[in-house]
Structures are given as structure tokens and as C-alpha cells.
Amino acid sequence: MTEPSGGSSDKPRRPVVVPVIALTALTAVGVTALLGGLGEAPDELDTLGAGAVLDQGQYDTKFVETRVTVVPPESEFQDEKRFLEMVFDVTNKGDETADVGLPAPKPEQAYLSAGFGASLLKITPAFGKDAGPFVFAQAKGGETRQLQPGVPARVIVRYQLQENQPPPEKVSFEVAGFEFSPDFNSDIPRWQMITSEVGDKFLPEVKARVTMTVKKGAAT
After folding, report:
1. Among the ranges 12-21, 42-51, 57-66, 70-79, which has the highest mean pLDDT value?
2. Where are the transmembrane segments (predicted)?
3. Closest CA to 127 of 91, 61, 93, 171
4. Burial level of 50, CB count in 10 A (0-12/13-18/19+)?
5. d(CA 145, CA 181)
6. Which stretches of the chain are DSSP H helices?
7. Which tens digits make up the pLDDT trace of 72-93?
8. Is residue 145 a contact partner of residue 115, using CB atoms and an 8 Å limit?
9. pTM value?
10. Mean pLDDT of the chain
11. Burial of 99 (0-12, 13-18, 19+ CB in 10 A)
């Protein structure tokens, strides 16, 4: 601070004291900003692996495995295809048929769907747009896009690998949860993804982190 004109002082300047609480608050705000908002997974979440079972609210989900599947060509004019597959055993705990769903391109778009696939967030490594995802459930009659109430179903989330593209060693992703709560527009209760409002976005709250080692060499 500049001394008033015509005066001087030999007194040492007083250090500015910042309360510890204020520093802690500023640090917390900075960390929250770096993480991208309150919808991120808290650090204390354990990482689940193959064989783990998670209660997602609307779904009971077992993380079965991640594997490479080779699909033979349907004719001599076609080539075989290789897919990275994420395999789940899913039971719809609701009273109505649910959509299998798809992973959303961006986390802030995931809340628009109550389908199981939409709850899979931040899949790593990322795959190109042409690679998928292709998602379906296996049923007695073949493949289906529906999950019937109370009926366990095997759900496959599939990404196509390009020619000579090596599969990853591991696949990691985050998983959102669902709650049965009044609809924003009609107040009628329904299953919807649990989210936090961050600015003008609704970001899914992360319920679990999952990492699975990729098994290679499966064939259909």
C-alpha cells in the first residue's frame, strides 16, 4: 500500500493472513472445476471387475467379461469381422418392459434414456463412430432390443475392430444408477437416471467404476 504523501513510517508491514477455511474452500472449488462438475465419480469408489454384481436401481447387473469375438463371413465375398464385446447379465427390476439402450456419445446426453446401455459412461479406450456401438440382448428367439420385467438377460455391447487393429488389453468404464421418481414434466413416477445439474447440463452421477481384462479368441 502507498504511504500518504508527507508521511513516512519505519514500522514493518503486517502480513496478510488468509484463514485456513478459505484456502480449503478455494482448493475444493478448484478440484471440482478440474473434475468437470459435481456429476463425476467420487474418488472413494472402488473399481469393480469381472464377476462383480451392481444394483443400479432399475437393473441388477453382473459384469461378466470383455472379449474379442470373431464372426465368420456369411459368403465367400465377405471377410470375417472381429468385435470387442462387453458382456453383462442384466435383470430389469421394473414393472414395465425396458429398452436395452445405447451408450451415449457424451455424458450429458445419457440422462435422456432409461435404457441399460445409456448407463455405461466414459468407455476407455474410445472407439470410432463407425465401430459402433451395437447393443442387443440374447433371447430364446434370437436377439432382442427389450428387457422384460424380472427376466434375466445377457446383454452384449459390441464395437467392431478394424483390420489389423489390435484389441486393447483392458476396457474401463463408469456406470450410472437409476431412481424411481416423479417425471419433471408430469410428476408421474418413472425410472430415470440419477443426475446432478452442473451449469446448463445434467451429468449422470457415477455409481461404480469397472475395469475388465479383454479375453481374446472367442468365435461365434
Report:
1. 57-66
2. 16-38
3. 171
4. middle
5. 24
6. 20-35
7. 887 877 788 999 999 999 999 9
8. no
9. 0.77
10. 83
11. middle
Q: Which residues, in sequence order, are CB contacts of 204 under 8 Å at separation 6+?
A: 39, 107, 110, 111, 119, 121, 176, 193, 194, 195
Instruction: Give the three-state DSSP class for 132.
Output: coil
SS3 71: strand
Residues 6+ apart with CB under 8 A from 132: 157, 158, 159, 160
How far apart CA 64 and CA 203 sit, in angstroms, is: 26
pLDDT tens track for 93-147: 999 999 999 999 998 999 999 999 999 999 999 998 899 999 999 987 789 999 9
Q: Which residue has the cell 459402433?
A: 132
Give the DSSP letter string of 135-172: EEEEETTEEESEE-BT-EEEEEEEEEEPTTPPPPSEEE
Q: State residue 43's pLDDT score.
A: 59
Residue type, 188: I
- Of 127, 129, 145, nearest to 137 (Cα)? 145
**Of how many residues is the chain composed?**
220
- Could you give the CA distance from residue 124 to residue 120 in angstroms, rounded to a whole number? 11
